[in-house]
Amino acid sequence: MDIWPAGRLAGCTVRLSAAALSDEPLLYFVLDQLVENPTPPGKVCFEITEAAIGKHFSETQRLVHTLKEFGCQFTVAGFGKTDEGREYLSKLPMDYLKIDRLFVSDLDANPKDYALVKSANEIGHLLGLQTIAADVETQIAVERLRDIGFDYAQGPAVALLQPIAELI
After folding, report:
1. pTM for this one?
2. Phi, psi values for residue 43, rounded to 5°
3. Residue 4 has pLDDT above 80, yes or no
4. Packing angle between helix 139-148 and helix 111-126, nearest 10 degrees?
5. Contact 15, 42 (CB under 8 A)
6. Domains plus CATH for the chain?
7. Residue 135: which region, alpha, beta or left (left: phi > 0; alpha: psi -120 to 50)?
């Protein structure tokens, strides 16, 4: 059974925990899977939180650089929650910047969050990254994100959770 229907799969995001990043065999396992399966590596995106990167920076750096050579993509998630986030972005070849839901959830009512989200979007675009707003809950927030210039949004206002069997 082909669990990765490469022709129909638009993309797949795999979130890596801090514990996974510290697991030495993980990189070799992922490399084996990329070689053995027909899914193009460009359709696979690994999502790593700012906090996890901070806990395991050298391991993350090795993983990202190695898998980027195979064509995989990377998202830094939870942007804005740590002071080191901008530093990580300058040292890691990421593709996407996901703004933390703490800032997006009150975007339509809180001018400070709006300013933070707008500046994070600008930082992402200046660094050549596509931006993602996490957990977008209202249509007003969708409209504001569109006005700001975000590339992607995810959450209840955009699409409901669906069983993976219905997506494949």
Report:
1. 0.84
2. -90, 0
3. no
4. 40
5. no
6. 12-167 (3.20.20.450)
7. left
